[in-house]
Amino acid sequence: MVGSYAPIDLLKYAGLITWVAVAIPLLFHYWIYPDPLPVGLLMLWGGLQLIFGVAYWYLARQLPVRVAAWQGLSLLVLMVGSALLISYLSQTALGAILLLIVAGLLPWVLSFSGSLIWLIGQNIVLAWVISMIPGVTPGNAVLLSVIFLSVTILAFITSLVGLRNIRARNALAVVNSELLSTQTLLAENTRIAERVRIARELHDLVGHHLTALTLNLEVVTHMVEGKTLQHVQQAHSLAKLLLADVREVVSEMRDDDSVDLQQALETLTRGVPEPKVHLQLPEQMVITDPMHAQILLRCVQEMVTNCVRHARANNLWISIEVIENQIILTAKDDGRGTDKGHMGNGLAGMAERVEQLDGTLSIKSSPGQGFELNITLPEEQ
């Protein structure tokens, strides 16, 4: 049964179970404690426990998608404050157990170095809170804090491994989709090349010989009489019909040289687990120039890869439309955006591909406002 749950779901529910376990002393307070707390303090304790649980589940249910930095930090501060106040009110180390849950969330909100600083900071405050418990000396408080720090680091590393596994799996899924889409486009190009080769062979060889045969039969019709002439004329007519049929087949094979770019793009975006890709294409997305098709596919691949690696977005919208003899490719996500003015290697390579066809590339982005990229290519001649 456990195998039916994703690893990230198991981490979520493990934190939820831990939160419920910490609430047991509150629920059975009058039976556990010889000197129960006043009703007002118990209600405050219950409120803090509820606040911690709501903040945790709001943050955890969005995983593996990473929330905005300000939102994640606000929820973490709320959870840590609630946990420390619970320890202070209950005069126990229950808050330290809740901080284990916080440690499991840190990799999804902060960087590795930021998470370590956070862990050390919250355990320093924890030591101060524990030192205020009657009967606990400052030395014992520091010792307990160090022990709890080692356990929280274990929880943090476990969650970090889960995060990196998810990222590796997502990256592998994207690469697999890119390979499948490239394979689809390569198969289309191979099909077109083979049709052109066959059409050329039919035109150059069969067509040439049929033309010569027709001319020779035309000459023979002036050299024979009687029944022989009838048979020669019939053969001449059949040769002319066959030549016309060959020319028609050659024309049809040359006309049907469009690339099914839509299938390649759908194959690419279908395998992306995160973010959700919304693909909008014309009803019949066919490209007759393989170079146009290849550049459009490579640009979409780069957009998807950048969004998966850097954007922390939930959605990516990609659209292609033809307006006034121009092919317009637009990609926009709802990620964290950027204020960097220079292009990385991927975007620089994309710009070079676009310039090969005398196209243009523009970028719109700012922190917290997502990333938008627009590419305009001249329509195929």
Give a quick set of tags describing it.
381 residues, two-stranded antiparallel ribbon, alpha+beta, single chain, five-stranded mixed beta sheet, Heat Shock Protein 90
Description of the structure:
- The chain contains 12 helices and 7 strands.
- With 381 residues, the chain is an alpha+beta fold.
- It folds into 2 domains: 2-169, no CATH class; 258-378, Heat Shock Protein 90, CATH 3.30.565.10.
- Strands 2-4-5-7-6 form a 5-stranded mixed beta sheet, with helices on one face.
- A hairpin with a 2-residue loop joins strand 4 (315-323) and strand 5.
- Helix 5 packs parallel to helix 7, helix 10 packs parallel to helix 11 (290-311) and helix 11 (290-311) packs antiparallel against helix 12 (345-356).
- 29% of the residues are buried.
Q: Work out the radius of gyration.
A: 35 Å
Strand content: 5-15%
List low-pLDDT spans: none
Oligomer: single chain
Distance between the termini: 59 Å
Largest sheet: 5 strands, mixed
Order of strands side by side in the largest beta sheet? 2-4-5-7-6
Number of domains: 2
Q: Helix count?
A: 12
The run of helices and strands is HHHHHHHHHEHEEHEEHEE
Helix content: 55-70%
Structural class: alpha+beta
